[in-house]
Amino acid sequence: MHMNKTVALDEARNALVIIDQTLLPGREELLYLTGIEDIREAIYELRVRGAPAIGVAAAIGLYLKAVDIARAFSVSDKTPPEQPPDKYNTDHFYFELHAAKNRLLTARPTAVNLGWALDRMERAAMEQNGGPVSAIVARMRTECLAILEEDERVCVAIGRNGLELLRPGMGVLTHCNAGRLATASRYGTATAPIYMGHEQGYNFKVYCDETRPLLQGARLTAYELTASGVDATLLCDNMAPSLMSSGLVDAVLFGCDRVAANGDTANKIGTSYVAIAAKHYGIPFYVCAPSSTIDFNCADGKSIVIEHRLPGEVTNKWFERRAAPEGVKVYNPSFDVTDADLVAAFITEFGVIRPPYQENLKRILKDGRWKLEDRT
Ligand code: MRU
Fold first, then answer.
1. Which of 1, 47, 127, 209 has the most CB atoms in a 10 Å sphere around its CB?
2. 3-state class of 235 per DSSP?
């Protein structure tokens, strides 16, 4: 891959720069986006996708909006005479910023990282309340770059922690794309232990579910792994149990979009089906989870909002000719929830978390750098 990162801030152009993932693996094209509507469209259409990457993209998008609002105030005198200039400007700045935040938030509902990153950006802006607009913008720039840089550190830590659970030569199954294309890191989340093992000569055999209907496993994971020299094999989603029964899978490594307080985990549609099969075959199912993807406001999986997408993704997209009869009803949830009791462990940047998740996940936040003993 030519671009170092899937998502970045181009300060010379004042733009969010992303790899347009809808064109992969055929073409690697960069998009430079400046307006909130274009950034929202890119997130909705999965030009940039994966929970951490959309959080970073939205954070940069909100910063660019802040630059824009500040510029509009400085070129035209919008201050009515009866208002003190700073107060008027600041109130309007926050009002417009909040509207842009809400607009981005509606792009995709399931990945908590989107709201998490936008809340962080708004909080950073509010810290400067009372000061000049230029100081608010500067603070937001610092915050979006911090979110971007943290992603690299978090993925490296997940890679190190995850690698402790794996042995050289293992067969590892993954689903969708929780790789470098889904984050702002060179390692991704679920692929971080794989890339790190690869650097150390572990010779993993990696199996990539194609991931119907949007084919992130085939188009993105198989692409980035093979481009990096990792031994990768592609399979259709319905072949995973057959692969497991043949003894070729030693561990399953998945990403996540939102983890509820009890450990129920939303991830790409098809995840729960693989988790159920893994339990049947006695294969550990690990969820690679940055702490930013754990949502303590969701008590359990039932309170996670699942995104449903357009029927055309199932009937037409990626087919040369329509593959289903006109007018057929289509069920197209983009994510599903895997019950916590199917998850062998969460691999976070702070360590490997084993059950009971209700207590142990909470301690991550409370104790920050707390490291859980591996109890198995
Ligand atoms: O619809 P997508 O492609 O954004 O879904 C992505 C996933 O489900 C990933 O597994 C998840 O976001 C984790 S990415 C590190």
1. 209
2. strand
Asked whether the CA dihedral 247, 253, 257, 262 is positive or negative, the reply is: positive
**Which of 18, 216, 293, 305 best tests ligand 1's pocket when mutated (most atoms within 8 Å of CB)?**
216
Separation between Cα atoms, residue 121 and residue 131, nearest integer Å: 16
Report the alpha-carbon distance of residue 33 to residue 35 in Å, rounded.
6
Which residue's entry shows tokens 């289509």?
330
For residue 165, the model assigns a pLDDT of 98
CA 349 to chain centre: 15
pLDDT recorded at residue 75: 54
Q: What is the pLDDT of residue 238?
A: 97
Q: Which residues line ligand 1 (CB under 6 A)?
A: 46, 49-52, 111, 176, 178, 182-183, 189, 216, 255-257, 267-268, 334
- Of 106, 96, 32, 44, which Cα lies nearest the Cα of 65? 96
Q: Residue 46: in which H helix or E strand, if any?
A: none
pTM of the model: 0.94
Q: Whose CA is nearest to atom 15 of ligand 1?
A: 178
